[in-house]
Amino acid sequence: MQDRHNAVWVAAVQADELARTRAKDTDLSVDSGLSLLNTNEVAETYMDLFYKKLVRWIVMRNHPFTEIEDDDFQDFLLHLKPALSDHFIQADALRNRIFGHAGAQRQNLKSYLTSIPGLLAIACDAWTSSNRIAFLAITASWITDRWEREETLIDFRELHGAHTGQNMAEEVAVVVSELGIKNKVLALVSDNASNNGTLVSNLAGALGQPSPQMRWDSSKGHIRCLPHVIHLAVMALLLGINAIPRGTDVRNHIDDDSLFTEADAENVVAEDDQEAHENDGANNIDSTVNLKSACDKIRKISRIVRSSPQRMELFKTLATRIEEDNEQHARSRNQLYIKKRIKNLVLDVVTRWNSLYFMLERALEFREAIDALCSHPKVKIFNPYLLSNVDWAAVLQICGWLKFFRGATRKMSGDKYPTISLSLRVYSLLINYVSKLESTPSVQSVPSVSMGLRACRDKLLEFFDRSTYDSEYYYFATVLDPRFKSSLFKNEPNLFSNEWTDDCAMALHETCEQYYASKKRLIKLEEPGNMIEAIDPNDFESAWQVGVPTEPIREMVTMSVGDEIAIYLAEPVTYMNPLDWWRKNSDRFPRLAAKARDFLSIPGSSVAVERVLSTGRDVISLRRASLTAETIRVLMTYRAGLLLEKRMRRV
């Protein structure tokens, strides 16, 4: 048997080596930057490679370390490769391998980040895990030499003591100094919590003695997360129109709110089971429900329906019968009717306004079933919450408003395209949208609605003013986005004063002179010359070229910063993705291209951190609640590095 195992082992190693050699041959075209994230596999043994792959699977799938000791798992591996017998390690040894691989990868990440062609932005947020450990998640975003946007988690540090801005600034400084990117940090993105403002003001001191190469400026570098601003504005609106309870803390912005989906909303459960103990046959009114609020009525109906399997079954039965009746009526009129897929009602979380959107949207979808439920002759618990036509009209209106705000949040939550250049336009659209709603007679006739919309607009204007006053980076990014350039500022004189745009334009010119001096000669495109005339009257190709303009003349010239900016702004705006446009035009505008690479790397939201924190909940599951802070840090950063490596392999 031992000889058979040896033969199997030799054959397996030979086959694997052949496959690996072929894989290496196919990897020759991979971007050279990728090698900075890969350890050298040439000198590794077969078992080293086996455990590297196993470690990656454990980390990426959030399996416990003890998985390697599981009898069934080992039996599965032995079935695939019997030669692995007697080569299994214990969970502690697997942990040591994870730490070793993660340490090597971190050194490679450091080498890679210090070699990227431009600057980068960081985003951070504090978070407490389910096992009560406080962490500071720090991400970085940049634009590669291929003009592609990238981001990754660069650290997940345990926070000791209070979550003060000074404490967090020191942690951020330690991380960027360790990675050698202190001089590459251009901006910091965070939500609008007060400790983040303190973080920004203390970061310069925490970074140590400034140098001419350092680009961090505390007075300009703080970028406020726009989805968080939208959250504050929408919550002000919802409080004003009594769509959420009066005591709701509107500042409580749940970390992954921007990533909250309809599927997530369907899994929301009530914090208590009060409705489960209420009698179906009684029509007692819940004193906590505002019967003047259509949203509060729907919230109560959803809580009751979701409080027991029997009530959920009753709702679905009514909805099914209604759909069958609608289909029969349509057939009798020779009309097509597509039956809805029966779904349960959604319950919102009052601090997540987008969950309210999903709750109202689902209620509108099954309005007939809700009306039937509230008119049920035997199950009277729903009767007090029957919605009138006026109530349903209000629900439809509010749902439409929330849909608009959700669209803005989704636009700012992208990770494949620049978002800071969208920020001012999103502000403009939202402010104008709310102002238009305020001016409608139907709104002006209802004081509470008018007051809610005014509070929403005031909140948007407050943070719009703060953002544009604090930093000219928004202006830089907007102008350097070839889809907008200066058109937004010309089209919105009420939001952007001439004085502000003139000051920002001057700052754009000055920073180009200071940081982006180009030794290259610029390519200037002249208009095409005269049309070609036919040379040989009997030559078709010669005749074909008559009337066809020649290529523009590409002339190498020396151009000032002012001329480069003027020529760029004089050209029409484009529909192209800004990174694609700069990839094709960087030779024509080398100084502006370098600046665009820096400023378009800044995200307009901290959604990247929210994604990390969402992953953290999976890493620290019930089966892994005993993990130490350092182990969690290693797992989170190693996992992020593996994902970055995969993305770069696809380039």
Keyword list:
25 helices; protein dimerization activity; two-stranded antiparallel sheet; alpha/beta
| Number of beta strands | 7
Helix run count: 25
Measured distance between first and last alpha carbons? 46 Å
Integer average pLDDT: 87
Structural class: alpha/beta
Which percent range describes the beta-strand content?
5-15%
Q: List segments where confidence is low: pLDDT < 50 over at least 5 consecutive residues.
A: 22-32
Radius of gyration (Å)? 30 Å
Q: Tell me, what's the shape?
A: globular
What does the main sheet amount to? 5 strands, mixed
Q: What is the share of helical residues?
A: 40-55%
The largest beta-sheet arranges its strands as 3-2-1-4-5
Describe what this molecule looks like in 3D:
Helix 14 packs across helix 17 (473-479). The chain is built from 25 helices and seven strands. Helix 6 (194-206) links the parallel strand 4 and strand 5 (222-224). The strands form two sheets. Strands 3-2-1-4-5 form a five-stranded mixed beta sheet, sandwiched between helices. The protein has a two-stranded antiparallel ribbon with strand order 6-7. Residues 22-32 have low confidence and may be disordered. The chain is an alpha/beta fold. The longest helix has 25 residues, at 2-26. Among the domains are: 2-105, no CATH class; 228-447, no CATH class.
Gist of the model:
The chain has 25 helices and seven strands. It is of the alpha/beta class and about 650 residues long.
